[in-house]
Design a protein that fits this description.
Elements lengths: L3 H28 L3 H26 L2 H26 L1 H4 L10 H22 L6 H23 L3 H22 L5 H29 L4 H4 L6
Helix pairs in contact: 1-2, 1-6, 2-3, 2-7, 3-8, 5-6, 6-7, 7-8
């Protein structure tokens, strides 16, 4: 029989690895210049989120987190990227660079500041001693949420903004799987399908905008006037 302390330590280390890579993907979404590469990073981020949910679920022996992991893999890693690719159209993903307000070095510097702020904020939220998964997942999740929001603000293309919104939801869930490990299954299913519907609708809107206007650059749409 394996030592419970050894098993817990292994799970914590694996969760730290998944969380570290999750944070790197959040930085990558800010720094990435290509739409398709951003979508691939979102897929990897969703896989890491599922891995963390599985590890926390294994530690607490809760079927809810196993379900979260499976839903995340199925919807966020497969179905949503497929929907975005099919509804938006291949021509948008072949563009070389994403239009953005600030350059990459400045964006990464601001992102580093947001990540530090997330860790400082989580330290105040966790004033009392907590579980090791909560103490790690909470700051990583808040950082992922803030970096996703920054990606939405700094980008001037509709598809990367959609990916940024989905990344924000990933950040919130990364914290949630550790904080509310016994979340009712109906709430998990509702949240997953809400995200799926949002991605589908926003993909269709982006496709229609591209067909009518010829661009998905948000900044250029402000100059459009009704005929």
């Amino acid at each position: 029989m394996s030592d419970p302390n050894t098993t817990l330590l292994t799970l914590i280390k694996l969760n730290h690895l998944a969380g570290g890579l999750f944070l790197i993907t959040a930085f990558g979404l800010v720094a990435m210049r290509q739409v398709l590469a951003s979508l691939n990073l979102f897929i990897l981020q969703s896989i890491l989120l599922a891995a963390s949910a599985f590890l926390v679920g294994y530690q607490y022996s809760t079927v809810h987190l196993y379900t979260v992991a499976l839903i995340t893999l199925g919807i966020k890693s497969l179905l949503i990227p497929w929907l975005l690719y099919r509804t938006v159209g291949e021509e948008i993903y072949t563009r070389r660079e994403i239009i953005q307000v600030l350059n990459i070095p400045m964006s990464l510097l601001i992102s580093a500041g947001l990540a530090i702020f997330a860790f400082l904020l989580s330290s105040h939220l966790l004033s009392a001693p907590g579980q090791p998964f909560v103490k790690f997942n909470l700051p990583i999740g808040i950082a992922g949420l803030l970096l996703g929001a920054y990606a939405v603000v700094v980008r001037r293309e509709a598809v990367p903004q959609v990916i940024g919104i989905l990344s924000m939801e990933n950040g919130a869930f990364f914290s949630g799987v550790a904080i509310a490990s016994d979340l009712p299954l109906i709430a998990e299913l509702a949240a997953a399908f809400d995200v799926l519907i949002i991605a589908f609708v926003m993909g269709l809107l982006t496709r229609r905008i591209y067909q009518r206007v010829g661009t998905t650059a948000v900044g250029q749409m402000t100059s459009l006037k009704e005929e």
